[in-house]
Amino acid sequence: MLGNGVVGILSESVNKWERRAPLTPAHCARLLHSGRDKTGVARIIVQPSTKRIHHDIQYEDVGCEISEDLSECGLIVGVKQPKLEMVFPDRAYAFFSHTHKAQKENMPLLDKILAERATLYDYELIVRDNGKRLIAFGKYAGRAGTIDILHGLGQRMLHLLHPLVFLYIFSLEFISCLDVDKGYLSLGYSTPFLSLGQSYMYSSLAAAKAAIITVGEEIATFGLPAGICPLVFIFTGSGNVSLGAQDIFKLLPHVFIDSSRLPELFNNARECTRTSKKVFQVYGCVVTSENMVEHRDPTKGFDKADYYAHPEHYNSIFHERVAPYASVIVNCMYWEKRFPRLLSTQQLQDLTRNGCPLVGVADISCDIGGSLEFVNQTTHIDSPFFRYDPLNDTYHQDMEGSGVVCSAVDILPTEFAKESSNHFGDKLSGFIGNLASTSDITNLPSHLRRACIVHKGALTSLYEYIPRMRSSDSEDVSDNLPNSHPNKKKYNLLVSLSGHLFDKFLINEALDIIEAAGGSFHSVKCQVGQNTDALSYSELEVGADDRAILDQIIDSLTSLANPSENDGQSKENNRISLKVGKIQENDIKNGSDTKAKSAVLIIGAGRVCRPAAELLASIGSTSSGQWLRTCLETDIEEQNGVQVLVASLYLKDAEEITEGIPNAEAIQLDVTDSESLCKCIAQRTTLLMPIVALFLWNDTLDYGTLITFLFNEIGLVQVQVVISLLPASCHVVVANACIELKKHLVTASYVDDSMLTLDEKARNAGITILGEMGLDPGIDHMMAMKMINQAHVRKGRIKSFISHCGGLPSPAAANNPLAYKFSWSPAGAIRAGRNPAIYRSHGETVHVDGDSLYDSAVRLRMPDLPAFALECLPNRNSLVYGDLYGIGREASTIFRGTLRYEGMTLIWLLIRFICFNLLSTNACIGFGEIMGTLGRIGLFSTEAHPILEHGKSRTFRRFLCELLKIDSQNADEALLGEKYISERIFSLGHCKEQGTAVKAAKTIIFLGLHEQTEIPGSCQSAFAVTCLRMEERLAYSSTEQDMVLLYHEVEVEFPDGRPTENHRATLLEFGETKNGKMTTAMALTVGVPAAIAALLLLENKIKTRGVLRPIEPEVYVPGNCFSQNLFQLLVLYSLHTGNIGSLWHQVGGEDRMKSIFFFLEISDLLSCTDSGFKQEFQNQNQTTICSSCNRNCTVYLNKQRHPWLSDGNRITKYIYLTEALAL
């Protein structure tokens, strides 16, 4: 029966929550349909299950048989161990047996397998040659466990006592001196975590992550209560479980800090909470053994190899240096009894008495009574938490009362049963054929032979120690015991060990020493003593790439073999004999010299992606090569272009981006899965299918020609640069992968502290991480630095720097009372409009509270665009740009603002009528005034509203009446017209002027908030209701254009008496329709700079390594060659594609530009030596070029002859009218 090719799949019976399957229907289909000759599988019989994540019918549909009887199966596979009655004679079994450590609870199963002369393979023991497991669920355990503790955290916070309550209990005198309301001590906290469910409640891992991201947005926008902050998550260990846990944590707005900075963090937090009631991020801290223990000898530092060899020489310090600052401990470390505990029960009790803020513990490792002594019980998916009260040393099954909420679920991966089964099956299906068709394990690959604990009723040689261990008091043996061959290292030697290696676990110490030092090992021979008095013998091939490391390993092993007199151990039983062979040097050669084609990986398939993909994919074409060659001073065609890979969580989104773009490929990627991310970034693939098809179609070429062509002419497609267009919170994950794989990275997001911490790592890896490469930030930086540096070169001093930028509807699309539309979720825009701001004006620092931001809007008119009626809102912290731009000490005014339309002025109405044949009767409507009034009405409140509770009948009209305090009994009959609403708004004091109330009323009517239609049940707050209506009523149609307007104004004064100069630079861009698809101006001005930055990195034109912004001269200054100016590249690309709307720079306030449509910074773009660029302009039919090496000059374009300015061009009409009004 063994090796008959028939595979049985068990129905999991150990736990009611176990929904995983070792093989999914898709895996079964591949195994069956490929044929037994290829897969070794003839039939698959599946035990029926009503709870398995994949239904029985899905297995039937792919050719599996459904039957309770698996007696015909030669190989039976499951996730967990089967019932004893399912163990048949002469069969092979594969599952997580938990027997190789001689675990007592599973010895009856092992005895049954031995008695039935069966064969047992353990997934846990299928390892690579470097000792790492090939099949595991570790990351899914970390992900599920972290989501569950966040869910529990939300519930626990509702019942949480203020942290000061513990001090209150023990020191009333101390608490009385603080300015704290004692009634506040007993109140709970409502946090965004309360909306989270447990992991199993989500349909997929992606859905769970989306929920976490939503919580993160809430925290970033509205903050967490200061009373529970700083909220610090401690992650123990650095393995797959810890990495999975951190994957989830990183979806929140976060900062990782070193454990040594925890006291400083808490001291700073106390100062901050005195001035702020909210904290807008959480903190993470990853700790390993080095942070948990210290040597008993104060003269000795921590040595990992020594710690693993002699843990008794070390004392725990976790309770002194880490735990006092922990809010949540996520325990991901494997622990053995010989090591100090992470936190004992007594230590937790002492910490609690001293006011420790610990709220929750997720013991994902689930070592009951182990490293966390007070975790004395497992929990279950349906009851995942218990509460331990340290002060009373009692355990409870509720959330109310004092103490720490603890989770210790031992089957966490099953909460993501679908994803974990797919992941597991992908690995296992590669081994099933060998296991199902083999009766002699000597024919198996080494990694499967090592995983065989029992063969035909007998323990295999590697596991003959198990009977010895069953009689031992201890139950702990290292996971690496049945070891494996390493990847061949440069230096190798043979080490012979003899002694009580297994029954005293000395082999563990030896292997720990090797791994801790960074070495590798291969088990050459292993003989286990046949009785307790006999010694065991093992030969290991030990390797390292560094001779010094190998010497260190031998020294540590020698210390293990010769313990000192003061160790307090019995030398007779705890000593090993050591013999060391001769070191051999292995000649390691570099890999293939196959030439590689450049590839750029774009992660994120939003609106910004397509312009970037189009530009990159066009490289290599004749027209693109001409303008790019001018800039890069290289023959770009020698690359055969650039291959573009567009990756998205949803493959359909990526395919929509790449549709119709040559040299572009769509792939699916979950960036939170680090293994998939690294594989995607590191991929080296050949695009063979189109080439093979070409040769098959051309029957004049033989196969020999094909093979020669493939090997000699076709290079590999290798990713060299990654562009991340993901949310900013995801960039660090991608950046770390790029550092590990030595790939350049470009992002369009702000460079925050988490990215800056990677600067040294990036430099050491020899890569560039170029951030803020979009519009704002991005083009604004480059325009600003060019203007500032030009002023400094002329010995000028920046007196004032003012920058405005806005994404707006085009004039034709500004057809609503707000004169604004959303191309993305309104929630983000509204939240951004409620952030506090700070700037400097004439030497005085101005602070604007977030609640007052809309009311701070001021009227703005641009000299170059007098027809635009605009208003400006301060944009967050402008002062940081003083330091970034190097003008912090000289500029008395530093201001960055966000642009919105002020309203429909008479000039604006005239433009709309003349240019677009549109007529509106709306009066001047100010965006800031309206939004501020709506905020005071309560339409932006995020608090749950009673009228929106589930089960209640609620209409938009009834809800509006509630906000405007109109009698709810008459709400349905009320005549809620514009006049009535405006009068109500004014009478309630939501605005100071009647006109403002009218404007707000018009907006409310336009949004339909007065209508009798039902409000969806998903809306639980006024904020949600408003966002829903704005998303419906203020969206762009498929034919409407957006517009981007960027405007800098710099005032320069000179010490030598020269007159003060005013410099202005403006970028105006409109969205455009191509092939029936609208490409927004925002997408163009963000995607194109990011793509050009990738090109510069591909051509090694940016040589500085580390984390950069485009404020570095290497990026924006031409220097000695025109090729280095990314800002110029953007202009040239715009000329090449015809995408640019208008870009110009006016100097010194001179009125030379009055009748000119297109202005450029000529001093750099058209110096006398730039003949290539002159030719590019001449090809566009302009009539006159003025250029000078030493001073700015102007390009005059003939309006009648220039192809962009035909009579049918609406931009031309608009500019003509602008010029007429200006004159």
From TrEMBL:
Location of the Alanine dehydrogenase/pyridine nucleotide transhydrogenase NAD(H)-binding domain: 211-408
Question: Superkingdom of this entry's organism?
Answer: Eukaryota
According to its UniProt record, what is one Pfam family this protein matches? Answer: Saccharop_dh_N
Q: Which InterPro entries match?
A: AASS, AlaDH/PNT_N, AlaDH/PNT_NAD(H)-bd, LOR/SDH_bifunc_enz_cons_dom, LOR/SDH_bifunc_enz_cons_dom_sf, NAD(P)-bd_dom_sf, Sacchrp_dh-like_C, Sacchrp_dh_NADP-bd
What pathway or pathways are given for this protein in its record?
A: Amino-acid degradation; L-lysine degradation via saccharopine pathway; glutaryl-CoA from L-lysine: step 1/6; Amino-acid degradation; L-lysine degradation via saccharopine pathway; glutaryl-CoA from L-lysine: step 2/6
Q: Which UniProt keywords apply?
A: Multifunctional enzyme, NAD, Oxidoreductase
Location of the Alanine dehydrogenase/pyridine nucleotide transhydrogenase N-terminal domain = 8-144
What CDD domains is this protein classified in?
LKR_SDH_like, SDH_N_domain
Sequence similarity: In the C-terminal section; belongs to the saccharopine dehydrogenase family.
Protein name, as recorded: Saccharopine dehydrogenase (NAD(+), L-glutamate-forming)
